[in-house]
Amino acid sequence: VLAEKRSLGSRDGPPHLVVLVPLHSKAAAHDTLCLLQSQDSAVVRVDEGKAGGFVLLCPRLKQRWRFVTTEAGDLHAVLDLAKVADSLLFVLDPAEGWDSAGEHCLSCLFAQGLPSYALAVPGGADLPPKKRIDARKKLAKAIEKRFPEAKLFPLTTEQESSLLLRHLATQKQRHLAFRDRRAHLLAYAAEFVPSQESDLVGTLKVSGFIRGQSLDVNSLVHIVGHGDFQMSQVDSPPDPLSLNPRVVKGLKRSQDMEMQDDSVNGTSEMEEDIKVLMKADPSKQESLQSEVVPDPMEGEQTWPTEEELQEAEASMQANRRVVKVPKGTSKYQAAWIVDDEEGNQEDDDDEDDEFDDDDDMMEEAVSQEGESDEEEEPAEEECETMTISESLRDDQYDEKVEEDEQMLEKYKQERMDEMFPDEIDTPRDVPARVRFQKYRGLKSFRTSPWDPKENLPRDYARIFQFQDFSRTRKHVFRQIEKGETEGASVGWYVTLHICNVPVSVMESFKEGKPLVLFSLLPHEQKMSVLNFLVHRHPSNSEPVRAKEELIFHCGFRRFRASPLFSQHTSADKHKLERFLRPDTALVVTVYAPITFPPASVLLFKQRSNGMHDLIATGSLLSVDPDRIVIKRLVLSGHPFKIFTKMAVVRYMFFNREDVMWFKPVELRTKWGRRGHIKEPLGTHGHMKCHFDGQLKSQDTVLLNLYKRVFPKWTYDPHVPEPVPWVRSESVVPLQEVEME
Question: Which domains does the chain have, with CATH numbers?
Answer without folding.
Answer: 1-175 (3.40.50.300), 177-241+274-291+474-479+487-525 (2.40.30.10), 423-442+630-708 (2.40.10.190)
